[in-house]
Write a structure and sequence with these properties.
There is one protein chain. The protein contains six helices and ten strands. It starts with a helix and ends in a 6-residue tail after the last strand. Helix content is 23%, strand content 19%. The chain folds into two domains: 129 residues, N-terminal domain of MutM-like DNA repair proteins (Alpha-Beta Barrel), CATH 3.20.190; 124 residues, Helicase, Ruva Protein, domain 3 (Orthogonal Bundle). The strands form three sheets. Strands 1-6-7-5 form a four-stranded antiparallel β-sheet, with helices on one face. It has a four-stranded antiparallel β-sheet with strand order 2-3-4-8, covered by helices on one side. It is globular and about 60 Å long. With 279 residues, the protein is an alpha+beta fold. It binds a DNA duplex (16 and 16 nucleotides) through α5.
DNA sequence: AGTGCGGCCTGTCCGC
DNA sequence: TGCGGACAGGCCGCAC
């Protein structure tokens, strides 16, 4: 399901309800996730939530120990929504849903539930600062940060023959760009998704960086993209699907030139593009 | 080292 | 109405 805008929407949705609240209990109803939910998540019990933030598509809930609240990163919960995960804020007595895996009960009575039908998500505890976690250590820059720029992409792409779309979706290169937004950004930038990453000029990488930022920021503004089942923590859908230029629009006219949008599988993922506008 | 692919899961939809 | 197969927004780990 979720790419960066959906994770960001989720973060913004849960933050007001969780910030500075004490965690009273954690209930694991089904530990079967990409990483099995272990007993260690209980370490968060009794601690207060000092900060909620995001790195790539990981949601990080910092719960510093009560005896030393200034050490914000000393332990916290790490959540990844995988393909089908979602978080929702609800009352403790609200009915459980199929595939509710973990539940966080706060002292103020609010409840956070993690639901994930396909179980590709993660809900885990990490003792050390989150950036030292093996899954976060090797990640590339944030797409909305300064380190993601034309010269950087151009340099990283040197000599690579992989399709530029796969390159853009490689989390060691840049994080947060998934299958929807890769197609969208490449269309906006006028770059053919199959073009070898090493054969894209610096100028066009500058354009691609701007396009990626624009697409992601607009999607965040619209509350993410709801194609099938994404909802924010308040159960509201995202509205960016209305703005999609090529994704899932095979056969329909390109909004720029009117040619038919094509669909093609690249790296086992459906890819949408306009052969006329993208070279 | 870069590249491509299988696999993890369930739910939904489509064609027969 | 049932059934098999394809497909779905992520990402790791492995073989070449």
């Amino acid at each position: 399901m979720p790419e960066l805008p959906e994770v960001e929407t989720t973060l913004r949705g849960i933050t007001p309800a969780l910030l500075n609240q004490r965690i009273a209990a954690i209930t694991v109803r089904n530990p079967a996730l990409r990483i099995p939910v272990g007993e260690s998540v209980r370490k968060a019990c009794g601690r207060s939530i000092a900060r909620l933030h995001r790195r790539a598509k990981y949601l990080l809930i910092d719960t510093p120990p009560a005896d030393n609240p200034s050490r914000e990163d000393d332990g916290g919960l790490m959540i990844h929504l995988g393909m089908s995960g979602s978080l929702r804020i609800c009352a403790p007595d609200s009915p459980l849903r199929r595939h509710d895996h973990v539940e966080l009960s706060l002292q103020n009575g609010v409840c956070l539930r993690f639901n994930d039908p396909r179980r590709f998500g993660i809900f885990t505890w990490w003792d050390a600062p989150s950036e030292t976690h093996p899954l976060l250590r090797e990640l590339g820059p944030e797409p909305l940060g300064k380190a993601f720029n034309g010269p950087y992409l151009h340099r990283r792409a040197r000599g690579l023959r992989v399709a530029v779309k796969n390159f853009l979706m490689d989390s060691r290169v840049v994080v947060g760009v998934g299958n929807i937004y890769a197609s969208e950004a490449l269309h906006l930038a006028g770059i053919h998704p199959v073009r070898a990453a090493g054969r894209v000029s610096l100028a066009r990488y500058e354009t691609l960086v701007a396009a990626t930022r624009e697409v992601l920021q607009e999607a965040i503004r619209q509350g993410g993209t709801t194609l099938r089942d994404f909802t924010a923590p308040d159960s509201q859908p995202g509205y960016f699907a209305q703005e999609l230029r090529v994704y899932e629009r095979a056969g329909e006219p390109c909004l720029r030139c009117g040619a038919q949008v094509r669909k093609r599988v690249i790296g086992q993922r459906s890819t949408y593009f306009c052969v006329n506008c993208q070279r």
